[in-house]
User: Fold this.
Amino acid sequence: MGKKRLALGHFAIRLGRFIQSLAIVPMSPNDLVEFSRRSYSQAQRIEDWGRDALMADGLYPGEEAMLSRIPQRSGPLLLLGGGGGRDAIGLARHGFTVTAVDFVPELLECAKKNATRHGLSIQVLTQEISLLDTPVAAYDIVWFSQRLYSTVPTKQRRITLLQRVGRALSPGGLAVCQFHWDINANRSPQKMRTLRRLVRMTFGLHQIEPGDQLWQQREYLHAFHDEELLKAEFAAGGFEILHLEFFPAYMSGSAILRKRNTV
Assistant:
């Protein structure tokens, strides 16, 4: 009897996760971006992302490890996902000239003020990253903040973003990409067929993929679960992989990418 109750408990958990996954079905990619933007625009979220204790953390150990693999220690760096300034401050301390991009202007104002309090100066740019629009060849490094790459809905939109990142990079420039990684995120073919039928009924997320979810009911997140699919996505965006690493215990991964020479 105990085994049956345990089995029912696990079934209820799986069922609950599947029901939660339905939240993204009726939303278009633009809707998902707006859903996330509104979540991060809440006053409490802005306060949380800009608190002094977080600024004192600087770059996390994993980010420091990625930085150690990059030969540059100065020059223009485009930070995608400025938040309240933690990453920007940490990268500026290392000697980079940082321009932080975010789709919440209040967060960028917070980041600028935090940088000033730490004796640093950063530039800010209010944009939604999948529509990134910067001068050509303006940056030596494009740095994706924590898992930000996974917040861009649909494979095609992420590939287009990579192409825009490539145009923003100077010759020899690098992209440092962090993403959400979960080998358990793959859904069964039966579940995907059900989701796609619901998408057709609601005219929602037509490019829905295994791993698409609303993370903690506050933002869209795509969980990568297949290394070859991830590599193919980077290649389609015009990049070659210099370093690729996964951290299953933290449900994250990182890559250092170099724009392919198309001449």
Residues 82 and 100 are 5 Å apart (CA to CA). The radius of gyration is 19 Å. Residues 41-185+223-259 form a domain with the Rossmann fold fold (CATH 3.40.50.150). The chain has a mean pLDDT of 88.
